[in-house]
Amino acid sequence: GSMDAFNPFLLQLMFGLQKELKSSRTFVFSTELTEITSSLRRSSVQQALREVATVVRDWSGGTNIGHSLARLNRGILREGSSRSTVAIIISDGYDSGSAKLIEQEMKVMRRRVRKIVWINPMFGATTFEVRATGMKAALPFVDHFLPAFNVKSLEILVRELSQI
């Protein structure tokens, strides 16, 4: 719900990253974790967005960040290389689950990846403050906290991502 206004743009961003980083994998989460890598390999952004809309059943149903991170940590990230894996999380940090679980799972993720990048689409607004308990729990484990609020913040985002 809180991310709905940003989702079309952010999915386009992930579409572009998936095209550039062929070995990357992309997941979306709300109350569940769903892989959308194959959807983002379509020939157009519109095709990809249509497919994602049908594949992700729990869209806009609230967010359980800790549960989704736990699934990543015990599945996908367990298989990867901690020397080369960069986890990019796009979320405003608002969560219906436990902040303690987010902290616990971010700690596990910290050991399993080289870098953790957190993109918050609200970061960059002049009124932005870290209020969400999920965001507060995650921040100590984040290497790069990046904005995606407006054109200026997107320039920062692209520059930072290209250097990681």
Q: What can you tell me about this protein's structure?
A:
With 164 residues, the protein is an alpha/beta fold. Helices cover 44% and strands 13% of the residues. The chain contains 7 helices and 5 strands. The protein has helices at 7-20, 45-55, 65-74, 76-79, 99-112, 133-138, 151-163, and strands at 27-29, 33-35, 86-90, 115-120, 144-147. A 3-stranded parallel sheet has the order 3-4-5, with helices on one face. Strand 4 (115-120), helix 6 and strand 5 form a beta-alpha-beta unit. Helix 3 runs parallel beside helix 5 (99-112). It is globular. It starts with 6 loop residues before the first helix and ends with a helix. The model has no long low-confidence stretch (mean pLDDT 83).
List its traits.
7 helices; alpha/beta; 164 residues
User: If you compute it from the alpha carbons, what radius of gyration comes out, rounded to the nearest whole angstrom?
Assistant: 15 Å
User: Percentage of helical residues?
Assistant: 40-55%
Main pleated-sheet profile: 3 strands, parallel
Q: How far apart are the first and last residues' alpha carbons, in Å?
A: 30 Å
Number of helices: 7
Morphology: globular
The main sheet orders its strands as: 3-4-5
Structural class: alpha/beta
Strand tally is: 5
**What ranges have pLDDT less than 50 throughout 5 or more consecutive residues?**
none
Oligomeric state as shown:
single chain
The average pLDDT value, as a whole number, equals 83
